[in-house]
Amino acid sequence: MKPLTTEKAVMMIERENILTFETGKGKTKESLKKEIEEIFDVRVEKIRSLIRNNKKYFYVKLKKEFPAIDVATRLGLM
Description:
Strand order of the largest sheet: 1-2-4-3
Distance between the termini: 18 Å
Largest sheet: 4 strands, antiparallel
CATH topology: Alpha-Beta Plaits
Radius of gyration: 11 Å
């Protein structure tokens, strides 16, 4: 699992409280949700997934009380 740092991903962090990750195709939404909640000590509201060019992307929306920008700062994205 690696976080994306594209311009669109940064805008989603700021506006919609969404983090974007690129993972292998074997990862499921439930396993990713559990992993993110344990590592960053946050609560996930919703996860959307996208498969493009043989890569799987997850859009992770955090609950309002957990700002995505704080997690992005801890990851070194901001």
